[in-house]
Give the backbone structure.
Amino acid sequence: MSGGWVELEHEFSLDVQYNPVCWLELPPRWETAEWQDIGGWARDCAELFWRSHGQEPGESGVPFLADTLQRLADAFAPEAFDTRVVLRMWEPLTMPLPVVAAVKPAQGGREETLRALIRADDPEAVEPPVVETFRAELLGEGLRAFRYVQQDDASEVLAGLRYAWRDAEAGADVVLWTATDDTSQIIRAAKDIEELTHKVSVAVWELEPDGGASPDTAP
């Protein structure tokens, strides 16, 4: 999921404060005990989500949503300690939209790195990406880009939205992104994604001599 990113050895993680009414976090693959019963997680979440909407799922409603959640977990659940993935949930029968956030040690010049993280100069974009300066509450000033990319193996065009920041105090670069072939999903989720960006911060883990670790969230 985050190919090309530096191995972190648990130096950084991300704190993402999200509204559980509209966001559902995918369980990470490194939590072995949870991942072994990913089907149970998907079923429990599907049942709770249907119940929260006060709708009658019928015979197929819960299995349908559980299967959707499990497929999304299989595809997007983070494999590395530096990544968090949340799903923007709508109605029980509407496809959720995955949003990925990841952190790595800062490398290279700030502007060059942030432009690379948001794919500002992507040669495969259907048209030049729309690049803007964006300020988040906790991570400060960064860049945002919206672009369309033709899929290699399909006729559909993917719409992608990316944000990137450099946390100079923590010495880390952060990227948050989503992509879908349903542009209306990004439009519908845009306000919620923007709100989410204001709740992302970097936690710096100071490794202790005895092998323990203590987080120091920045800022």
